[in-house]
Amino acid sequence: MKVSVLGATGYAGAELLRILYNHPEAEVVHITSESHTGEKIADLYPHLRGLYDMTLESMKEIEAIGDDSDFVFIGLPHGHAMEVGRAMAGKPVRIIDLGADYRFADTSVYEAWYHVPHTHPEAERVYGLAELYREEIRNAKIIGNAGCFTTASILALAPLAKQHLVDVNTIIVDAKSGVSGAGRSAKQANHFPELYDNFRAYNVAGHRHTPEIEQAITDLSGEKSIINFTPHLVPMSRGILATCYARLRDGIASELVDAAYEKLYGKEHFIRLLGRGAYPSTKDVRGSNFCDIAWHIDPRTNRVIVLSAIDNLVKGAAGQAVQNFNIACGFDETAGLDYVPMYP
Ligand SMILES: NC(=O)C1=CN([C@@H]2O[C@H](COP(=O)(O)OP(=O)(O)OC[C@H]3O[C@@H](n4cnc5c(N)ncnc54)[C@H](OP(=O)(O)O)[C@@H]3O)[C@@H](O)[C@H]2O)C=CC1
Ligand SMILES: CC(=O)N[C@@H](CCC(=O)OP(=O)(O)O)C(=O)O
User: Fold this and answer.
1) What PROSITE patterns does the annotation carry (predicted)?
2) 145-156 pLDDT, tens digit each
3) β-pair partners for 308
């Protein structure tokens, strides 16, 4: 399969290149950047030296890129992918957008939270969270890859929502991310003195991943779900740990919760169930496409507390995109993704 990466100079784009290098069925044919057009990717990312001798092109060549590619991966800030999608509408090329443009079934929700008009609302698109929407992904033309915090949170909560074990209006997600989640461009909050030896929350009661989690929990449970989501920034480069709370419905035994996780994920390669009472950690999944999940039950409050860990750049972005690509192409789902996590 000929694939192209738009926004190859971003963290998500560069991570795609790292993963695609080892993919047995993918050949990268075009990579783009607007601010580094004409430069070699390995000059911007020395870890790719000797592995990619490719020159960055401009998106002005989008027509030719679309004609040459079977799949286009988009690692651009939100708002750009829908323009690419429109430009590709008449071509056989398929799209996996790592941003948010194609994640929402209802584009008015996207517009309300992202504050830009949606310019491609008629697009046939599917939500790219592989373990939960595999059948839809198989034949999709446009896949809206799930977000990073959202992947960790939705995978943690899905068994409880699907089996109606919790009140879906009592969900609280408290999640922590490494700084690569904010992208490569310089921002004051990510400046070393601001970040180092520091820990803080941001976008409380207003983060854009809130409606994405609500959309999935509503879909999986069949009940309208309104949640609280609080992200935090931690001074590490990669990794997300999500701590998710929900009130159990009356009379739900712990074994029913255990069984729900086993039923949904028991056969999933990329979801590792650590079990009741265990503690996932970001280092155990670093550099891999795994999502590690454990759950605890507090009988005093009748709450279930689910912990999940992912690498935001892999299962939260590029790895999940390649997993979706594998599903969409009928390849083994682990193709190019069979990494042992980098420990320690
Ligand atoms: N980082 C993460 O953990 C995750 C990121 N994502 C999503 O992936 C996408 C990329 O994120 P990330 O790699 O972190 O971001 P970066 O800021 O690291 O990279 C952004 C990329 O977009 C390009 N770009 C920026 N502005 C424009 C523009 N106006 N027109 C065209 N290209 C532009 C940049 O290219 P250049 O400046 O060279 O022209 C660069 O390649 C985003 O939608 C993000 O939400 C999703 C999940 C996780
Ligand atoms: C640490 C950090 O800043 N994380 C980003 C989320 C990562 C991202 O790029 O958003 P998507 O997953 O929706 O694409 C944020 O909070 O906006």
Assistant:
1) ARGC
2) 999 999 999 999
3) 242, 293
